[in-house]
Amino acid sequence: MMSGFKWQRHGQGAKIALALPACAFVLLVLFGVIGLLRTEGAAFDVRVLYGAGAWYLEGISPYGIPKTAAKLHDIGLEMWVYAYPPHLSPFLMLLASLSFAWARAVMVVANVAACLALAFLVARFMQAEARQSGRPVEPWLPAVVAALIIGSPFTAHVVWLGNTSLLIGAALVGAWWFDRERRPVIAGILLALASIKPQFALLPGLWLLMERRWTTVFTAGLTVAALSALHVIQFGPIQSFRLWLEGLEVYDLVVDQLQPHATRGRMGVDVFLNSMHITDIVAIPLGLAILTVLWRYRTALSRLEILASLCAFAVLFLPSHNYDLVLLAPLAGALALRTRSDAQLAWVALTAGLLMMLPQRFVLLFAGEPLTFWRVPVLLFLQVLLIALTVRRYADAPIPFSRAKS
Questions:
Q1: At 68, is the secondary structure helix, strand, or coil?
Q2: Rounded CA gap, 119 and 21, in Å?
Q3: Contacts (Cβ under 8 Å, ≥6 apart) of 216
Q4: Which residues neighbour 402 within 8 Å (Cβ) at sequence distance 6 or greater?
Q5: Cβ(187)–Cβ(171) under 8 Å?
Q6: Of 126-140, 211-225, 294-308, which has the strongest mean pLDDT?
Q7: Tell me: the pLDDT tens digits for 23-75?
Q8: Contact between residue 217 and residue 184 where contact means Cβ atoms under 8 Å apart
Q9: At residue 357, what are phi and psi to the nearest 5 degrees?
Q10: Rounded to 5 degrees, what are φ and ψ at 342?
Q11: Average pLDDT of the residues of the chain
Q12: What is the Cα–Cα distance from 132 to 135, expressed in whole angstroms?
């Protein structure tokens, strides 16, 4: 009864809270699952995962020069180069034990579920931290953010490809949430799952380590070790690590040299600077400056804002691709909370976010190659905006947001 009363009381806001994510989910199904207006790329990454799992089942390392396992080749599909770390191997073997059609279905369902979990967790984070600050948020604001996450073209692209970025995003935000709620074992397990793309779990893991979240970090390490056990038994501890490094080297070779056009799909300050014929060494002091400011003003940052900044930093300064922009879901929630009392800033942030979502082929068609990496400066602007708002608020009235729930 009380729950129903609250929904009636919120009225229009409650309707928006239901309608927007529902409409976004329809877009996700149309463009991510069915593939409306798409002509290529279906299950591209599923082929990589499935092919790697097939090699593992044969007792052969999938790392190195691209090669296709018989199980994949027999159905007329070719495998792309593989570079995930060893602790993903148990999941891949389970995936490859299915038919390819079922494996693709599993990845679609898993990614859609991860997308919904990611949207839910960010919305939950927003509500919890708004209450903690003494300014509860209206239901429509988390609904708008959830709709942006679910309906994002990057989300649809990940689902269509069968990539793992949504799974990583959901695991990362889940780890941060459960650490906040003082449930370190669950947080550590989720952090370990997020580390299948190590560059995105690296900074959150180091941050938790510097905050002395020993149980969370120890559980994450133990989980990675447990998941890697099968690979280590199969190939040996030193050889497992060596094979993975070899896989990373071959991946870079294939992407950067054999397929130059693949560079368009990359993100990061380094590729942006290189496109402007500026040495990417400039990115190092810029990145260090951002991390220094984050640590200096950490007591003024909420847990969501810390994670948002670390994810944005990883996308900007560590190896990433356009589809990895799904990891900016926490940034959307953090900026929505920070700008909710300033309509002009809110519209600026929203416009910048929507600008990042423009299809690359349309931008290249109308603006040409100079704007290939336009998303990088836009994301850098949003990150600096969040930091500037934090510093301004800290100067006015420092609030120890970053303390986890006691």
A1: coil
A2: 9
A3: 175, 179, 184, 187, 188, 191, 208
A4: 298, 299, 300, 301, 302, 303, 306
A5: no
A6: 211-225
A7: 999 999 999 999 988 878 788 999 999 999 999 999 999 998 667 777 777 77
A8: no
A9: -85, -5
A10: -130, 100
A11: 87
A12: 8
**Confidence (pLDDT) at 396:** 57
* Distances, alpha carbon 319 to alpha carbons 76, 174, 220, in Å: 31, 22, 22
Residue-level length of the chain: 406
Own/partner pairs, 93-102, CB within 8 angstroms, 24+ separation: 93/53, 93/56, 93/57, 93/230, 94/53, 95/49, 95/50, 95/53, 96/50, 96/51, 96/52, 96/53, 96/54, 96/56, 96/57, 96/71, 97/53, 97/57, 100/46, 100/50, 100/72, 100/75
CA-based angle 30:36:37, to the nearest 5? 150
Confidence grade of residue 166 (pLDDT, cut at 50, 70, 90): very high
CA distance 321 to 48: 16
Q: How confident is the model at residue 260 (pLDDT cuts 50, 70, 90)?
A: low
Specify whether the CB–CB gap between 217 and 211 falls below 8 A.
Answer: no
Instruction: Return the exposure string of 272-311: e unless at least 16 CB atoms fall within 10 Å of the residue's CB, then b.
Output: bbbbeeeeeeebeeebeebbebbeebbebbbbbbbbbbbb
Nearest-angstrom CA–CA distance, 70 and 57: 11
Tokens 């692209």 — which residue? Answer: 157
Q: Identify the CA nearest to 85 among candidates 200, 233, 231.
A: 231
Cβ neighbourhood burial of 354 (10 Å; 0-12, 13-18, 19+): exposed
% pLDDT > 90, the chain: 59
- Confidence check: pLDDT of 14 > 70: no
